[in-house]
């Protein structure tokens, strides 16, 4: 796919989009923008709290687009708030506390653990029975650790139980994980049979390599088989061409900082073959020092240069059929220098033609079924979800960074009408966001100040005075007015003129979209 990236011109006030159909098919999505943290209000009546929440919650502009386009978020918010409510209200019914900040996911879990831990810590100094306190801590630990983990693990168990077959996106998993899935590899696939050494994500007859010791002439496996162990020096011969894997001090075609890797061909070249590789089994402590298929993680170190065979992650040009580049890198500890053998056979034929025919016609199916326990698959899935998060597609031109959220530096486009300038943007209420951001800073400062003065027995204000917010009516009025002004960007039901969009552009960094005239 050919893509072109253009820089945003700083002197243009509005984005001009020639073809806006792409905005109508699927709205943009963006990471969730958290709320500010308004101070807690101590209410004497539950009815008053409900009235304040009913007025406050709909007046935040950034709530509408995620609620409309990301329906799953509603369930996440509900369960997160329910967990916090149960954590705070049930143990302290005599001291009610009100939650006005939205948390979700793992942060809700950590906050709940902190609240429960603080409750147990406060009870340690009481005169209650130690056995009763221990049982109380035990059941809280059970609820907050064992039950959530059991639910979480059961979801993956059902997933793996219902989906036992291989799919098109399994290449991100390890070979052992892929081999444990139900799959049958087809035979007779074509290949270019070119001589460059490359990588690609699918299985092919050109993936076969023969591993032999340097002093061994015969390619047939001896009886009993000679096992390759950690630290052994070997040669790797391409199964189809029988040419040895080679590297020398020449820059790689796409990654010039690394060495080129190729199959050595003696066509009256001045450079001798440098085709010796040392086997470094990375996981020999947990598995075995013997090179085994599927389970052994191997690093192949070039003997002459000390570089490791590495997948560079870059694609070759058209002459390389856009396959992935393989290089020899001086940095041995890189993650992409670790390889493993997915399939293994003992070479029987001495004749090259017969051996080639055997490889081409053979169906590439593992000789033995690989079995992984549920917990091995579960652990690998957790690692892949975390480790491959950076590989996700990067944000679009309207994306924003977390550092830009407190002051609403950027807006996020969700949808643009194909016939007018009606559009939906994720944009917060400036009054609530700026008030919340400033309040967090002021609250932190006053918290430290009053904590120090209280420690020194200085009582500046009555306890109830610290819980009041005298200007709530004026602040709420500003919120309603600002919400009303920007509500046209929440629902996209009003055709906006260029003048209207300019009036809504309170910050120069906000990117609204305008149809190009003509």
Automatic annotation (TrEMBL):
GO terms for cellular component: endoplasmic reticulum membrane. The chain crosses the membrane at residues 68-86, 98-116, 137-162, 431-452, 473-492. Residues 225-282, 286-344 form the MIR domain. It comes from the Eukaryota. Keywords: Endoplasmic reticulum, Glycosyltransferase, Membrane, Repeat, Transferase, Transmembrane, Transmembrane helix. InterPro entries: MIR_dom_sf (IPR036300), MIR_motif (IPR016093), PMT-like (IPR027005), PMT_4TMC (IPR032421). This is Protein O-mannosyltransferase 1. The lineage of its organism: Eukaryota, Metazoa, Ecdysozoa, Arthropoda, Hexapoda.
């Amino acid at each position: 796919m050919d893509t072109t990236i253009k820089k945003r011109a700083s002197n243009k006030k509005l984005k001009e989009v020639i073809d806006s159909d792409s905005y109508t098919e699927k709205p943009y999505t963006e990471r969730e923008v958290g709320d500010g943290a308004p101070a807690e209000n101590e209410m004497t009546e539950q009815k008053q709290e409900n009235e304040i929440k009913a007025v406050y919650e709909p007046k935040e502009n950034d709530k509408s687009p995620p609620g409309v386009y990301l329906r799953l978020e509603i369930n996440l918010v509900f369960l997160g708030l329910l967990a916090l409510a149960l954590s705070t209200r049930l143990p302290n019914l005599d001291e009610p506390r009100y939650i006005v900040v939205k948390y979700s996911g793992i942060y809700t879990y950590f906050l709940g653990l902190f609240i429960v831990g603080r409750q147990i810590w406060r009870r340690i100094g009481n005169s209650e029975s130690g056995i009763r306190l221990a049982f109380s801590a035990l059941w809280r630990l059970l609820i907050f650790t064992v039950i959530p983990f059991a639910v979480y693990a059961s979801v993956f168990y059902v997933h793996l139980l219902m989906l036992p077959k291989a799919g098109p996106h399994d290449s991100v998993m390890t070979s052992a994980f892929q081999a444990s899935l139900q799959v049958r590899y087809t035979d007779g696939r074509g290949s270019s049979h070119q001589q460059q050494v490359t990588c690609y994500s699918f299985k092919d007859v050109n993936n076969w390599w023969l591993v032999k010791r340097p002093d061994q002439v015969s390619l047939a496996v001896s009886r009993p088989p000679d096992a390759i162990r950690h630290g052994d020096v070997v040669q790797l011969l391409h199964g189809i061409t029988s040419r040895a894997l080679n590297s020398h001090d020449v820059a790689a075609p796409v990654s010039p900082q690394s060495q080129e890797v190729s199959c050595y061909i003696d066509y009256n070249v001045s450079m001798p073959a440098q085709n010796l590789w040392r086997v470094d089994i990375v996981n020999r402590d947990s598995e075995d020092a013997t090179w085994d298929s599927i389970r052994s993680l191997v690093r192949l170190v070039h003997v002459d240069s000390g570089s490791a065979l590495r997948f560079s992650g870059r694609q070759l040009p058209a002459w390389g059929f856009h396959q992935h580049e393989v290089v020899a890198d001086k940095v041995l500890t890189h993650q992409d220098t670790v390889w493993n053998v997915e399939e293994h056979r003992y070479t029987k034929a001495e004749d090259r033609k017969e051996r080639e025919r055997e490889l081409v016609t053979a169906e590439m199916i593992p000789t033995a079924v690989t079995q992984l326990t549920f917990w091995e698959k579960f652990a690998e899935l957790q690692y892949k979800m975390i480790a491959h998060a950076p590989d996700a597609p990067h944000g679009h031109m309207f994306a924003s960074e977390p550092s830009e959220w407190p002051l609403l530096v950027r807006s996020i486009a969700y949808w643009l009408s194909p016939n007018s300038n009606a559009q939906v943007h994720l944009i917060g209420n400036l009054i609530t966001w700026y008030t919340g951001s400033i309040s967090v800073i002021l609250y932190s400062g006053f918290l430290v100040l009053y904590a120090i003065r209280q420690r020194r027995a200085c009582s500046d204000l009555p306890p109830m005075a610290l819980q009041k917010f005298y200007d709530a009516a004026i602040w709420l009025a500003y919120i309603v007015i600002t919400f009303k002004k920007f509500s046209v960007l929440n629902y996209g039901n009003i055709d906006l003129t260029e003048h209207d969009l300019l009036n809504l552009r309170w910050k120069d960094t906000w990117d609204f979209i305008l149809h190009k005239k003509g």
